[in-house]
Design a protein that fits this description.
The structure is a single chain. This protein is an alpha/beta fold. It has two domains: about 180 residues, 3-Layer(aba) Sandwich (Rossmann fold), CATH 3.40.50; about 120 residues, Rossmann fold (3-Layer(aba) Sandwich), CATH 3.40.50.1980. It has 13 helices and twelve strands. Strand 7, helix 5 and strand 8 form a beta-alpha-beta unit. Helix 6 packs antiparallel against helix 7 and helix 7 packs parallel to helix 13.
């Protein structure tokens, strides 16, 4: 799956940055983002394709990957490469961040408009639209790997029908899944050792957080706000898994969907002791704005001033920096334990 690069995407499908939208459009975009949460990088089944003279792989977990390599995505669809992919198109900011973190950034030829970290990713000239995926424009790039997330779920078959080498990867549902996805992308891109170093560092930091909260028997009730329309996170999301790891009680626990839209009455009645605002910058939310919401001054977190902004580019993105979000939320919940 290799070949010369074809002309870039047409200008109308090549945004170079973020988008400015009105409230209705922003909520529509939010729904799409939530559907992929904010950018999926779940696992896949990776198995070497047998060669004419197979050689046993070394026992070391950092052994170089065997090529040809066959990868089955979450739909069970296999892709095979004779060498690491060199023309990757990523529709996932989380995966894009992972690829650059493990040394595979030079293999990325195009990414969606939200793939803005690190600086090298932000500087990519070729852009695809996260919520308006374009099979024909993507095909023109002649990629040997196209990464699609749940936000592009309805377009997956159109991409496959166009003959594109699609790897469909829904969002991880836990911190462990993010760590394992780092290792998976290392195998796929031929950067096993770098990926193992990144994943091992993440694991060490996650375990350190676990140790800090080990003595906690009952954590605070937490409301994690994704938007001022009261979208939150359920238990089966990586953000929900962070809250659980910190032994806090997610007030959205038991929701039927991964990203439930709560009512104001539900939030008030569940009386969160800490509120985390992922919409502090995007929707200008703060302790002061929450005080103006009808009935919210009765909430313990509002009364006690325990309303905190969290960085959505870190906390809502399933990449290597998720450990920074875990540590920061830990400090906000247990300042005495995270000094």
């Amino acid at each position: 799956m290799s070949g010369a690069r074809r002309p870039p995407l047409p200008s109308h499908t090549s945004p170079t940055g973020g988008v400015a939208v009105d409230l209705r459009s922003r909520l529509s975009l939010l729904t799409a983002l939530l559907a992929g949460l904010v950018i999926a990088c779940g696992g896949g089944n990776v198995t070497p394709t047998p060669t004419a003279t197979p050689t046993p792989a070394p026992a070391s977990p950092t052994a170089p990957p065997a090529f040809p390599l066959t990868v089955s995505d979450q739909d069970g669809k296999p892709l095979t490469w004779t060498a690491p992919p060199k023309a990757i198109v990523s529709y996932s900011p989380g995966v894009t961040e992972i690829l650059f973190a493990i040394g595979a950034g030079s293999q990325v030829i195009a990414a969606d408009q939200f793939s803005d970290y690190p600086a090298e990713a932000k500087a990519l000239k070729q852009r695809v639209k996260y919520t308006s995926p374009d099979p024909e424009g993507t095909l023109a790039l002649n990629p040997d790997l196209v990464i699609l997330t749940r936000a592009q779920r309805t377009s997956v078959e159109r991409f496959r029908s166009a003959g594109l080498p699609v790897f469909y990867t829904p969002e991880p549902d836990s911190l462990d899944a993010i760590v394992e996805s780092v290792r998976m992308w290392g195998r796929i891109t031929g950067h096993v050792e770098q990926a193992d170093r990144v994943a091992s560092d993440m694991r060490i930091r996650i375990d350190a957080v676990k140790a800090k909260v080990a003595p906690v028997t009952e954590g605070p009730r937490v409301y994690y706000e994704l938007s001022d329309s009261l979208f939150s996170v359920g238990d089966r999301t990586f953000i929900g898994s962070m809250i659980a790891l910190l032994k806090a009680k997610n007030v959205a626990t038991g929701s039927a969907t991964d990203f439930p839209q709560l009512t104001a009455e539900a939030v008030i009645s569940r009386d969160p002791q800490v509120i985390l605002l992922a919409d502090a910058s995007s929707a200008n939310q703060s302790l002061e704005t929450l005080k103006k919401r009808p009935g919210w001054t009765s909430i313990s977190a509002v009364k006690e001033g325990k309303v905190h902004a969290v960085d959505p580019d870190i906390g809502n993105r399933p990449g290597p920096r998720i450990v920074l979000a875990l540590e920061e939320i830990g400090r906000l919940l247990y300042p005495d334990r995270f000094r």
